[in-house]
Amino acid sequence: MQQKKDLTEGNIGKQILFFSIPLMLSNVLQVLFNMADVAVVGRFAGSIALGAVGSTTILVALFTGLLIGMSGGVNVLVALHYGAKNKKEITETIHTAAILCLFIGILLSVVGIVFAREILSILNTKPELIDGAVLYLRIYFLGMPALAMYNYGNAVFSAVGDTKRPLFYLVMAGIINVVLNLFFVIVCGMDVAGVATASVISQYLSAFLIIAVLFRSKELYGLHISMLRITPGKAKTILQLGVPSGLQNGIFQLANLFIQSGVNSFDATMVAGNSAAANADAIVYDVMAAFYTACGSFIGQNYGAKKKERVLKSYWVSLAYSFGVGLILGLALVACGTHFLSLFTKEEAVIEAGMMRLTIMGFSYCISAFMDCTIAASRGLGKSIVPTIIVIMGSCVFRIIWVYTIFAYFRTISSLYMLYAFSWSITAIAEIIYFRHIYKKQVTIM
Question: Domains of the chain: which residue ranges?
Fold first, then answer.
């Protein structure tokens, strides 16, 4: 069945919307893997298990962010060559990327399993939570290779305009994840170990389904065992695009580890409330991220096809959609936050603590669109290093400085959460200036 779409023709507003909807659902389902873990242990295993799993959230995001960054590099390069209809370049890119992504997934799995306790100790994880958190991480990290391959497959399909099939495979895996969560925790009494095991099984299922269809595909982007090899030139380009993006995600989460350390300086109730509320971050970010992926894919294909009038329009439409979605979801969370938090805990004190985060973040999410959408646009034009440096300085370094200055002075949880809005604003201004520069240099002269 023909699933691919030409992103260089047609109404951009309508195309980006319909392109992004399956991506939104796909991104949210990936978040639900971890959210289901948190919800099940919070409801059926108590606040200690909830805190243990919640204490791993940023660390999981750190490692998965590296994988997502690499797949973003694959997405941009495949979209560029697909827009130019260059069969040889597409073939070499997808086969080289498959090997690189699998290797990186295995490497992260080993590092995470070996150093889980040491990293959690550095984060000042509460003594009563650390054993459960270590157990959860060591099992969860067994799924890193599968997560790497699913994101690789998703990047390839998104680059050629097919966002429906990855969603279908993830839905199947997500259903299995929820069922296994309930079975392992309620029936088998495995609590933390049970939810981690369910996530790993689900991740391997989604990876198997998406890679299998790539091997069966007769399209330009189909995988073939006989062609699985690393082409040095393509490997270099993929790494030049993917590594800065992955490092950006990783360093971003590293900065967030300092924030988590600040949260951990409060009592266990505040930690649990923060853990529950942080699930909203993942949902909102990943819904907005669908438009960032669309932005990169549309700009990549149209830049490759030398259709400059559609490049800038793709950016503005993607930015408008992502800002609007962030604003709507944020306000909804402020209005319905207690109901959202009750999905993860029955304790009123934990819900009250979680609302402190949701109230501030709900008004701040939309600001991040200006930063992230502009970064995606620059990467769509093949520029990854400078946007990464900007975001590291504007968001990551700035956040660490904030923790040791503003937060250290006020020592309130609200002063800690406010750093998100300020860091997004500063970084967005610099990213927009850079994108404007490279657009004039690369696109207007085509």
Answer: 18-443
Nearest-10 Cα torsion for 408, 413, 414, 419: 60
Q: If you write DSSP's letter for every residue of 19-76 in order, what string do you get? A: HHHHHHHHHHHHHHHHHHHHHHHHHHT-HHHHHHHHTTHHHHHHHHHHHHHHHHHHHH
Instruction: Give the start-end residues of each E strand in 368-426.
Output: none
Residues near 381 by beta carbon (within 8 Å), at least 6 away in sequence: 299, 303, 311, 438, 439, 442, 443
**pLDDT digit string (tens) for 281-296?**
878 988 898 899 889 8
Query: 5: left (phi > 0), else alpha (psi -120 to 50), else beta?
Result: beta
219's CB contacts (< 8 A; 6+ apart) are 4, 160
pLDDT tens string 134-157: 898 899 999 999 999 999 998 899
Extract the tokens encoding 112. 């995470």
- Contact between residue 51 and residue 131 where contact means Cβ atoms under 8 Å apart: no
Q: What pLDDT digit, counting tens, does each position of 194-238 carry?
A: 888 998 999 999 999 999 999 998 888 889 999 999 988 888 888
pTM here? 0.75
CA–CA separation, 435 and 51 (whole Å): 41
**CA–CA distances in Å: residue 316 to residues 56, 291, 311, 326:** 36, 11, 9, 15
